[in-house]
Specification:
Probable_transposase_24; two-stranded antiparallel ribbon; mainly alpha; two-stranded parallel ribbon; coiled coil; about 450 residues; 19 helices; about 60% helix; 4 strands; flat
């Protein structure tokens, strides 16, 4: 009975898998196989295109000017923050209008915005040192520049900085932004305000670039939605388009455009922050005047062409130097920068970089000692950790050397290339070898190396 049931099942299986050529079942199976094959081919082509896109997006060389360039990444939902963060960045803010290079001057191919893949993926944290104004200045310029670029990637992330929030004061993800920054850097709490202001400025610039590149060139929202950057969710982008069309935004944009045209002396510092430049100058001389910092941050490179003339900047520098010359002749001291450029306005303080105002300058200078102590504590902790790691590595190296030596001796003994009597004598070190062993311990050299080098006789 069981054999009959088995044969029936096999027969039904054959009838299901086999179809006569030319029959409807045969054509249906063929169509089903073709669909499966096409899906596989499409998946392969899609993966290939994705890989090529990633290769094209790899950064080629750092740029020193802030240009509105974009290569967009698709955000991932319901993933850890490290996977959601878009690996893009913008030129770190310095609080001054940057100088623009003339178009068509460089023959280099334009690349997308900086993508900080290595920072988002790494588990180790880098140490950040602050100056007395709680601005990052060390341990190296490269680390500080990397930090600023990393913060720029957070400003363009649709999860950490949603595009349907139009006022930075309403951004309720500031704690998440700071917490994620501390996952990648050992940075004191005193730098939190600086970090958030840096992200805010990058957030503003990115939205300005989005409007210039994806809103202004097109006549209607249908085309704008079709040209939507890939890293912005559709629902957020629709709200952003509505905001750009509102009367409130248009009025604010006109005011900002007028104010921006009043900036006559753009800086040429590029990615390097004013805090870094000031820190470098203060290492060379005890006191740095505002005029000296103005000159350094406005000096143009001789082999580069720029869009605008710098006659206004040059003439103001000449006025400052003339005032300093006259005051030195009369034996008087005067702030040549303020005399030419005028007094400071409320809010941002010129030539100090991000996060410094008149109020915070006085407050931070008075309270600089606690900040320096906190920074020193962080440095001391890092040094202790490094010393502990070095000891562990030395122990591992010593163990490996001993194992290698024991293995070599065993192989020589097995091959009959070493005298067994001498090998037995090695177990009882002579006074000379004992002294050598003591010296080796002091020099962190395994005693086996000393014994092997001084006593083994090859037969």
């Amino acid at each position: 009975m069981s054999q009959q049931e088995s044969s029936k099942r096999n027969k039904r299986a054959k009838n299901k898998t086999y179809a006569k050529p030319g029959s409807l079942s045969f054509l249906a199976n063929k169509k089903r196989r073709l669909l499966t094959t096409n899906e596989i081919v499409q998946a392969i082509e899609s993966e290939k295109g994705h890989l090529l896109k990633l290769i094209e997006q790899q950064p080629e060389a750092p740029q020193s000017e802030a240009n509105g360039q974009s290569v967009e990444d698709q955000p991932l939902e319901q993933e850890p923050i490290e996977d959601q963060v878009q690996m893009n960045s913008v030129t770190p803010p310095t609080g001054e209008q940057p100088e623009e290079q003339a178009e068509g001057v460089s023959s280099k191919n334009k690349r997308g915005q900086t993508q900080m893949h290595n920072v988002h993926a790494r588990k180790e944290r880098k140490l950040i040192l602050l100056n007395k104004l709680n601005q990052p200045v060390g341990p190296t310029e490269d680390v500080v520049t990397e930090l600023s670029s990393f913060l720029g990637t957070l400003a363009r992330n649709a999860t950490l900085c949603p595009f349907d929030i139009f006022d930075w004061r309403s951004m309720d993800t500031k704690k998440d932004l700071w917490d994620y920054t501390k996952e990648k850097y050992i940075i004191p709490e005193a730098a939190k305000d600086w970090a958030l202001v840096t992200i805010r400025e990058a957030w503003k610039r990115h939205r300005r670039d989005l409007k210039i590149n994806y809103y202004d060139p097109y006549d209607n929202d249908e085309i704008r939605m079709a040209k939507k950057p890939g890293h912005i969710p559709e629902c957020q982008y629709r709200e952003l388009l509505k905001y750009w069309k509102s009367e409130k935004f248009k009025k604010m944009s006109e005011t900002n455009t007028k104010n921006r045209k009043k900036l006559m002396n753009p800086h040429t510092a590029g990615k390097k922050s004013f805090a870094l430049i000031r820190s470098k100058l203060e290492k060379e001389k005890e006191s740095v005047s505002a005029k000296e910092l103005f000159v350094v941050t406005r000096t143009r490179k001789p082999d580069r062409l720029y869009k605008a003339s710098n006659e206004n900047t040059t003439s103001k520098i000449a006025e400052m130097e003339e005032i300093e010359k006259q005051m030195s002749t009369n034996g008087q001291s005067v702030d040549a920068f303020s005399a030419v450029m005028g007094p400071e306005h409320p809010g941002h303080l010129r030539l100090y970089g991000v996060g410094v105002t008149k109020t915070t300058l006085k407050k931070k200078v008075d309270n600089s000692e606690p900040t320096l102590n906190a920074t020193n504590d962080v440095v001391q902790q890092m040094q202790e950790r490094m010393q502990k790691m070095e000891k562990q590595m030395e122990e591992q190296r010593r163990t490996m050397r001993q194992e290698v030596i024991a293995d070599v001796v065993a192989q020589l003994q097995h091959a009959g290339l070493i005298d067994p009597n001498i090998l037995a004598a090695l177990s009882v070190p002579s006074p000379r070898e004992a002294t050598s062993a003591q010296t080796a311990e002091q020099a962190k050299i395994p005693p086996q190396i000393v014994y092997l080098h001084s006593s083994i006789i090859i037969t």
